[in-house]
Amino acid sequence: MVGLRRPHNRILWKRLQQKHTLCRQDALVLLIALQIAVLAVLGLATWLLPIYLERRVSEAARGAVDQRVGVALANHQHELEKQSELLRQSLALTRDRFSHDYSLFAAKRNEVYAALYALLERAAGGYGGHFAVITSQREFSRSGAPVLRRLASTLEPISEDERAEFQSAIERNDLDSARSHATRLHKIASVREAYGAFMAFKNEFILNSIYISVPLESLLQKAVSLLARLSTHGDDVIDGERLRYAEANKEYESLRTVLLEVRDRMRLEMTEGFRQASDA
Predict the structure, then answer these.
(1) Which has the closest alpha carbon to 249: 117, 135, 120, 123?
(2) What is the pLDDT of residues 222-259, one digit of tens each?
């Protein structure tokens, strides 16, 4: 050190001092730059870390949500399929039950229609023998005692007094009187039989109205009205009163027209019922 302080070494000493000073300055600058870099990295990390963490948390949450949604959707789809199957089975049972119930209803309705039409035809036919354009009545003016005796025991419906009077004429061998009784009572019996069919038809109509459609019900009510009018003419026949033939014939022909409409309507409804049953 002493040697370096000599005059000829002063320049070298100064240069060494300057070099040492420069080294310290460079180290200081480097330290400051390093600190700045560290601060910059820490600042960048401080800015990026929340974003990174938020994104990772969002992705994790989204994955958890997606999983829960997928499970919920799968459960919901399973429940829908289960409900759909139950509904399908219920509809099938309802359809089978409806088909069975309708078959029972249609069978009963067809029985009612057949019975109603038969009674209506019997009533119309009974009155037709007296009020049609061509009447048909049995005549006993030439009948012998055996025929008259058999008729007296089997003819219906007549009263006991009428039957007794008829049989008495036969027993007295008063064949002319017996034949007259036979012709008159046979006519009376046919009118009463027609009236009996009319009343049976009316009762059947009322008791089974639940099976009868509205259009058919309207036609049957017309038939009832016309039969009621014909029954008053039938009373004239029974009582031996003068017959209003033109009026009775007009009402009878109207009844025949209604009867054809009733028949066509019944056929239509029964055919439609068969078609619906086959479609079911």
Answers:
(1) 135
(2) 999 999 999 999 999 898 888 898 999 999 999 999 99
Amino acid residing at 29: V
Closest of 278, 111, 141, 280 to residue 211, by C-alpha? 111
The residue type at 143: S
